[in-house]
Amino acid sequence: MPKKLLIANRGEIACRIMQTAHNMGVKTVAVYSDADATAQHRLLADEAVRIGPAPVAESYLKGDVIIQAALETGADAIHPGYGFLSENPDFVEAVEKAGLTFVGPSAKAIRAMGLKDAAKKLMEEAEVPVVPGYHGDNQDAEFLASEAEKIGYPVLIKARAGGGGKGMRKVDDPKDFAEMLEGAVREGEASFGDGRVLIEKYITAPRHIEIQVFGDNHGNVVHLFERDCSLQRRHQKVIEEAPAPGMTEEMRAAMGEAAVKAAKAINYSGAGTIEFIVDGSDGLRPDGFWFMEMNTRLQVEHPVTEAITGVDLVEWQLRVADDEYLPKFQDELQITGHAFEARLYAEDVPKGFLPATGTLEYLEFSDRARNDSGVVEGDTITPFYDPMIAKVITHGETRNEALSELEAALGETRIAGTVTNAAFLHALCNHSGFGNGEVDTGLIERDYETLTKPVELSDEVIALAAKHALDMPFQPNAAGKELEYAGTDPFEALFGFSIWEAPVWTQKLTLNEEQFETRIRRHGDIWQCKVKRGDGDYGSSFTDLECLEPDVSPEVFLFGNRVAVFAKEGTFEFTIPDPLTGSDDSAGGGDTVIAPMPGLVKKVSAKTGDAVEDGDALIVLEAMKMEHTLVAPRDGIIAEFNVNEGDQVEDGDILIALEASDG
User: Fold this and answer.
1) Where are the alpha helices (DSSP H) in 220-347?
2) Contact 170/234 with Cβ under 8 angstroms?
3) Which of 6, 185, 476, 478 is deepest in the core (most CB within 10 A)?
4) pLDDT tens digits, residue range 199-227?
5) Confidence label for 90 from pLDDT (cuts 50, 70 and 90)
């Protein structure tokens, strides 16, 4: 067993590995970039070493610097986590050459599965079913287009290196093939340093079901059953579960056998995942699944497997790396109950799941769930890395019980300071099809409008936010029925005093660019409010603010010029406008294209003086290794083009200005 383990990663997975290592009595070493100088994984480790600036190419991808950190701290093993260097065979060889143990598979096994085209050929030889497609070396655009025609549309363009949905494009129409190919190549080069692609048939009712495998150095391989990862957006997983809905024992045996066969074909040792695409159009059938790829590392969604098997997969990794036999063999493994994992991200769902940044001013997780996280209240989500806040994992005796617990846990999670996908995850939990186990990879796309529909905002929530924005020095007493003075200045208690009639306060608020105005008055212990939305009118009469009573009141958190209301309907984070700054409507108007996040300009498709139409693609912005296309907000002429390819931009920067509408 390693005496000291260096974790060549950051965030949630680094913290997760440290937890098991500490439980096993293994000391840990963290590595961190300048952006992670106060990160939790650094603080939880026994030792920590700075490895470079914030960009991953200058820190977490610097294998030589990481190995040197291990040697200098006396670490005898390195765990790569997932992402970064976890599937880099050159790094594995360098670790072993330095006399250290790599907690993972051999470089040879990683190479065998690292390129999707070569892996599929290997699987065909091992008699593992594979998806029809072109997996060859010819990367000529016209040739690939002709292969796509042979395969038949729709097709999937996939970067041959890497995973996580990066460098992947679904093409429904031949006329879009060239543009989609260009984007996939660019993203593959940016994410993996390899722009080569393969073309596959797109299964029209696909399910993504994967098998967790584990091998040791003595030739033993087992599978720890399946995970269903079909709930995806932009080819990235959102909610995973185990076991898969509708799975039969016959299908599970067939998939498990194929997965073990795949792992044995490359003498696999350690934790790995065999990913299959499954035809879900007519139930799960033993002849309806095909090999997609193998992830030669621990998966993000590994906790659901741990929940249903009772196995600590990180502990198994450490034991196998120490040349031990597998702790359990196939007949000793069994499924108990059902588990879900929801990926809670800082991202703006209504804006197309754009990654978001911000400081976690308030953060509270539910006790109902296992919450794997690498952040705490006060930490900042930066533009340099994946914007994950936490993985929310629940387990129950049945699928319905586990899903109900997930819905409740998400509802009890409180986050202020950045936008999140919590409401979207909550909507998925309440989706009737998903609730019935009717899942496939197209579910989110089909029901996108319903799932991303804004939560209805009640007048009571607006009024409560306004009351706190006014910073009135009153609060409910212990009984919760009367408002008592809560300050220390006796004159402050006369705030809003009026001789002839009840005092009225006016407070303006904004939420997602929607403007509200409230009028609040007090009659002794009774508080009342009128709400005006946008250009509408006030109601004809004041309404009692009964929502201020503790037994029904949402939680409220006031910070800076914002007030967050955590209500049963969701989290609403209002901005309190500064009356001295005036209106800034022009910043979000139809005459500009504004950077929605910090990022790198990868492509520009126009120039000053060009005529553009509403919806024309103008700029491709790369943020957190994903590409985002910015389009023209209306028809017009480009008056100013403020960026070039290769420029780094910040959130809110004006990138393009159009001539005025009447110009």
Assistant:
1) 249-265, 302-309, 313-321
2) no
3) 6
4) 988 887 889 999 999 999 999 999 999 99
5) very high
Q: Which of 210, 238, 658 is nearest to 445 (CA)?
A: 238
- Tell me, yes or no, whether 116 lies in a domain: no
Whether residue 426 contacts residue 408, with contact meaning beta carbons closer than 8 Å, is answered with no
Q: Quick check: 534 pLDDT over 70?
A: yes
Beta strands in 27-175 (DSSP E): 27-33, 47-52, 77-79, 101-102, 133-134, 155-159, 168-171
Question: In this structure, what token pair is assigned to residue 125?
Answer: 């030889």
Above 80 in pLDDT, residue 117? no
Are 427 and 464 within one domain?
no
Residues 171 and 255 occupy one common structural domain: no
Cβ neighbours for 449, distance < 8 A, ≥ 6 positions apart: none
Check: CB of residue 415 under 8 Å from CB of residue 377: no
Report how many domains make up the chain.
5
Inter-residue contact 417 to 358 (CB < 8 Å): yes
CA 475 vs CA 377, 464, 542, 559, 571: distances in Å? 25, 12, 20, 18, 21
Residue written as token pair 């460098």: 167
Tokens coding 584: 């800034």
Coil, helix or strand for 32?
Answer: strand
Structural domain boundaries enclosing 536: 459-575
DSSP state, 202? P
DSSP letter string, 468-530: HHTT-SEEE-TTSSSEEE-SS-GGGGGTT--SSS--EEEEEEEETTEEEEEEEEEETTEEEEE
Assess whether the previous peptide bond of 243 is cis (omega < 30° from 0): yes
d(CA 393, CA 371): 6
Estimate to the nearest angstrom the gap between the alpha carbon of 641 and the chain centroid.
32
> Cα–Cα distance between 320 and 314 in angstroms, integer?
10
> Assign residue 225 a region: left if phi > 0, alpha if psi is -120 to 50, beta otherwise?
left
What tokens does 662 get? Answer: 């009447």
Q: Parallel, antiparallel, or unpaired for β 504-511 and 483-485?
A: unpaired
* pLDDT single digits (tens) 225-270: 999 999 998 788 999 999 999 999 999 999 999 999 999 999 999 9
Of 164, 622, 168, which is closest to residue 354 (Cα–Cα)? 622
- Phi and psi at 48, nearest 5°, equal -145, 145
* Residues classed as catalytic: 297
State mean pLDDT over 180-194. Answer: 88
CATH number of domain containing 389: 3.30.470.20
What is the pTM for the complete model shown? 0.80
Give the residues across from 651 on adjacent strands.
none
